[in-house]
């Protein structure tokens, strides 16, 4: 698959890193764009990213990235983590950076655009912007980990969100814990 991964200035580097780890195989063509604030957050939270060999990095100021044009076919774009500022700019089509132009292209071409906000609490502006991107065709996956898997590490906790992202892209999540009916005791 051809996948664009982007990160903005929200906390949540662990989600991006775990997603990169899952997508590190040679069967994927990966493109990565980090905003300047995302780079700062990555350094603060993780000291850097482990990048797979199958990735091409782009500047958020680039005008030449192929996925910023509807004529280039890509399968999915994931903004993880997605700041509420970025979500709002996507909702209003401002397109002043590569990430925002690419998101606009994915929406207009009806391609999968997955936004992973990690902000809480939300104000009414956040909620209205979330509705606007949903109405435009984006998929919202708030970074809300689940606990029924009884995660023991931060990576295991983050994976509960990453599995949902992989599900939406249409890729296998081989270690995903799936909910199933348990026999009733009593």
Provide structural commentary:
With 186 residues, this protein is α/β, with parallel strands linked by helices. It has a single domain, classed as Rossmann fold. It is 37% helix and 17% strand. It is built from six helices and six strands; from the N terminus they run E-H-E-H-E-E-H-H-E-H-E-H. The protein has a six-stranded parallel beta sheet with strand order 3-2-1-4-5-6, with helices on both faces. Helix 1 links the parallel strand 1 and strand 2. The longest helix is centred in the C-terminal third of the chain and has 16 residues. The protein starts with a strand and ends in a 17-residue tail after the last helix.
Task: Summarize the SSE layout with pairings.
Elements: E1 2-7, H1 13-22, E2 29-34, H2 36-46, E3 55-59, E4 76-82, H3 84-91, H4 98-108, E5 112-117, H5 124-136, E6 139-140, H6 154-169
Parallel strand pairs: 1-2, 1-4, 2-3, 4-5, 5-6
Helix pairs in contact: 1-6, 3-5
Task: Supply the key terms.
single chain, 186 residues, alpha/beta, Rossmann fold, six-stranded parallel beta sheet, 6 strands, 17% strand
In short:
This protein is α/β, with parallel strands linked by helices. Helices cover 37% and strands 17% of the residues.
Mean of all residue-level pLDDT scores: 95
Rounded to an integer in angstroms, the radius of gyration calculated over CA atoms is 16 Å
> How is the quaternary structure best described?
single chain
CATH homologous superfamily (4th level) name: Flavin prenyltransferase-like
Largest beta sheet: strand ordering: 3-2-1-4-5-6
List the secondary-structure elements in sequence, H or E: EHEHEEHHEHEH
Strand content: 15-25%
Individual helix count: 6
Question: Could you give the distance between the termini?
Answer: 48 Å
Task: Categorize the overall geometry.
Answer: globular
